[in-house]
Each structure stands twice: as structure tokens, then as C-alpha cells.
Amino acid sequence: MADIDDIIEGGLVFRSAPKGNGGQDGKVKTKAKKKKYITGAHGSGSARQKAKYREQRANRGKGRK
Length: 65
Fold this sequence. Notes:
By secondary structure, this protein is mainly α.
């Protein structure tokens, strides 16, 4: 109960995250550019569907002259 009273009287102090990058170098890990994901080979239904749409978009205009 004393903790709650201290918080009410003094408030909470929110600190920022540590400055160290934690070994990540500021990069975002994503599967979106990996070959298996782009081709839909890893088995996910949504990945296969997206791969189909990518293929259709890539083939657009190839048959025209």
C-alpha cells in the first residue's frame, strides 16, 4: 500500500531505452526479401498467394507490342 501512496505522491519515472544497440545495428529483420518467401516456397498460403500476385505483376505487359 505504501508503494501506491509513493506513486500517487511522487509519480512514476519512465526511463528511455538503453543507448546500446543490443547487437542489431539498427536493422529490421524481415523475411519479405528472402527468396523462399518471395517465391512462396516456404509453404505459407499467404506467401504463395503473394508470390502469385508478384508473378502476375511481373508478367504484365510482356505479351504486348
